[in-house]
């Protein structure tokens, strides 16, 4: 597989991902869309910057899922009284038609996937609570997703991909200048860089030369610390020569 040189936005979930061989790398969905699970179907496809052809089908699938969920909501609120509890092992909802059955502390039950799961039923929720916390939130998410994607498709235009900057990051050793026997020396204050992200870092002379060469990406925190170091050094020199 060819190494990615650019990143692009996923058509389906909006995540920004690397583009090995020009197609989106494997990824999960963003946390914005709670009704999606697993690997995003946008992986292995063109990024949004180059195409929006895969969005329409997913929007239709979400519309169908939304209609089904809305029908389920209506059935729950108008049907027989029921109670709901959460599975301990999967945290999915389990329906109880009898409140007495739901008063046991725990129980093993076969879920809709045919798997035996442990459920906690000492605090059953009413159907209204279940609809509020488990159904309505999904409906809102799906409506927002459809609106978001419809706008993306309507306003779509091709644009450039974002290049990946493969340069190493330039870090400055946490330090300060001090006057020793009439000359300025660098006193190391920590074993870590000024940004606290890495051990070590370049000293002031090395940092100055490497920064000027332009072959490294700049860590903004380290660069601010280096500029502060340089300002302190100039002040020490000015004070020394003024005396």
Order of helices and strands, N to C?
A: EEHEEEEHEEEEHEH
The outline comes out as: elongated
Roughly how many Å is the radius of gyration?
Answer: 29 Å
Number of helices: 4
- Please state the oligomeric state of the protein chains shown: single chain
Please count the beta strands (DSSP E, at least 2 residues each): 11
Distance between the termini: 65 Å
- Please outline the major beta sheet: 4 strands, antiparallel
Low-confidence stretches: 98-105
Q: What is the percentage of strand-forming residues?
A: 15-25%
Describe what you observe in this structure.
The structure is a single chain. This protein has 243 residues and is an alpha+beta fold. Among the domains are: 81 residues, no CATH class; 74 residues, no CATH class. It contains 4 helices and 11 strands. It has a 4-stranded antiparallel beta sheet with strand order 4-3-6-5. A 3-stranded antiparallel beta sheet has the order 2-1-7, with no helix packed on it. Strand 1 and strand 2 form a beta hairpin. The chain is elongated.
Present the secondary structure layout:
Elements: E1 6-9, E2 16-18, H1 55-78, E3 83-87, E4 93-96, E5 106-110, E6 116-126, H2 127-154, E7 162-163, E8 169-170, E9 173-180, E10 183-193, H3 204-213, E11 217-218, H4 220-242
Parallel strand pairs: 8-11
Antiparallel strand pairs: 1-2, 1-7, 3-4, 3-6, 5-6, 9-10
